[in-house]
Amino acid sequence: MNRQAQAAVLFLVGGAMLHAGTTSLYLRYVKAGLQPLLLAAGAVLIVAAAATAWYELRRAREARRRAETESDAGHGDVQDGHDGHEDDGGHGHREPRISWLLVLPLFALILVAPPALGSYSALRSGTALQPPLAYPALPSGDPVSLSLVDYAGRAAYGHGRSLGGRTVEVTGFVALDRGGTPYLVRMALNCCAADAQPVKIGLSGKLPPVLQPDSWLEVTGTYSGKRAEDPVNGGIIPFIDVTAARPVPTPKDPYDESWNQ
Amino acid sequence: MTIVKAPPAPVGRQHGEEPPQQGWQFTSTHGLVLLLLLLVVGQGPIRRALSTPVMQSWMTVFLAVVVQALPFLVLGVLLSAALAVFVPPSFFARALPKRPGLAVPVAGVAGAVLPGCECASVPVAGALVRRGVAPSAALAFLLSAPAINPIVLTATAVAFPRNPEMVLGRFVASLLVACAMGWLWQRLGRTDWLRPPARATYEGDGKGAAFWGSVRHDVMHAGGFLVVGAMAAATLKAVAPESWLRTAAGNPAGAVLALSVLAVLLSICSEADAFVAASLSQFSLTARLAFLVVGPMIDLKLFAMQAGTFGRSFALRFAPATFVLAILMSVLVGAVLL
């Protein structure tokens, strides 16, 4: 890859990072806290692209000027040793072919922009539910709005006592296992989607007639004593007794980042 | 540059210089434009082909690894360019002890000041070697930096609120492995295994040109290898079933080995691996310590980046030795502390 192409790739990668960082696109792949770093990295890459293009232009201009003076003088071999050495944009040391691979994430991010991890990944990994450290008092409101991970922790490890029989409202996406059991899932994330792990709750009670995997639902219901064992890792999957379910759009940050706080 | 149809060469061309900008040649710039055009024109069919759940999840994980690692890679590349251009080699000669045997632990402890994950440490270690630091000391830095910096240790403490000894175990085991690998390289390492990072010398250009030249080179180079590693990690995450792990968890030796291999294959950022380890609660603490010690030192992404920076014959020897030593040291530290 010559230096002009490198400048173009650097510019495009930097631009893609800025694009992802300024829209909510980056939240599909990494945690929210990385946003300033993403923007800074994108800016640095664009500056590097501009610097590369600028020095390349200057070098080409110098080379042309030298070629002219050389042809005027009639012998050009004298100055060559020094300059040919620096000239890694030319023939000697171009960047290896592996640099071309940088086009792949660019293409994936700009043209495809795959969605956040959904039911496929959720059913392949075991629930990552951990015993909560404490059960703080529920916020006010009826129904009380809880994160899916919060409800699952209270239901599985606190046996629902801290829920006090109140009606709760949780949001997540639908996943159906092979037997057809519906789960409401939220992927919990620490850094990026490569370490995202599902937290699952089972749905029982009054369910909508058709459940589409990966569609987002806001479920209203009460604590149910029913629980299941995750077939993948043997973790606890608590259930919720559903009284109402309402489709909602995919939230801006599709992951649960409560572990990061 | 593949020259398809060379114009009559002017005088300057005979010396292997940059060809003047005249006439039509097929260069990598044209190749890039052509490739991007093809992708944009063909995006409909390509998108349809990629819409199966397994491909979607593959691409999401692939992008996640790249997007997450890129800022840290850029940070490391900037640091490495600054080291290469603005810090004179004599600084390192003064800062590190003369005897390489002593320089190794000093460099290992110095790893604690590089905040970030393993993507930042590879270019910095490459720059250190180029600036005349003994390879054994630079390698100790390479191994310790991603594991013992304050950000990673804090994340470990947060992930294991009930087992603060995990933080100490991680720190001690990682530092021991880094120093042991440094000393091992000093005794057994041969310089011809370590490919001196090939690059143009920047003397004669201005400092600005040298700095940005180094940044451009490192991003293009290490970035390409990062993409390879991300593809490998995404393939594993999207294809291999997690239930395999369950069978390994029962046997103590099997558990340590399984989590060490998992750490290599998953290639998780060292700032996040503690949370993954915490969730693998069916495994013993020692096995999870091995996961935390092995992961930042050697994984698919790192192996690809090390091979790119130091050469394949180096990486093929260094990676297995690091892997074995990291497991042994984790078991040892685990037996004492956990």
From TrEMBL, chain A:
Could you tell me the superkingdom of the organism this chain comes from? Answer: Bacteria
Residues annotated as domain DUF1980 = 164-255
- InterPro entries associated with the record: DUF1980 (IPR015402), DUF1980_C (IPR048447)
Which parts of the sequence are annotated with region: Disordered?
66-92
**One Pfam family in the UniProt entry:** DUF1980_C
UniProt keywords (A-Z) are: Membrane, Transmembrane, Transmembrane helix
Membrane-spanning residues where? Answer: 36-57, 100-123
* Matching NCBIfam families: TIGR03943 family putative permease subunit
Protein name stated in the entry: TIGR03943 family protein
* Originating species: Streptomyces lannensis
Automatic annotation (TrEMBL), chain B:
Which keywords annotate this record?
Cell membrane, Membrane, Transmembrane, Transmembrane helix
Name of the protein in its database record: Permease
A Pfam family for this UniProt protein?
ArsP_1
Q: Does the keyword Ribonucleoprotein apply?
A: no
- Transmembrane stretches in the record are 23-41, 61-87, 138-160, 167-185, 219-236, 248-268, 314-337
The UniProt entry lists membrane topology as: Multi-pass membrane protein
Identify the stretch(es) annotated as Disordered: 1-22
Family indicated by similarity:
Belongs to the UPF0718 family.
Where in or outside the cell it occurs: the entry states: Cell membrane
Please indicate if the UniProt record lists Transmembrane helix as a keyword: yes
- Major site of localization recorded for this protein: membrane
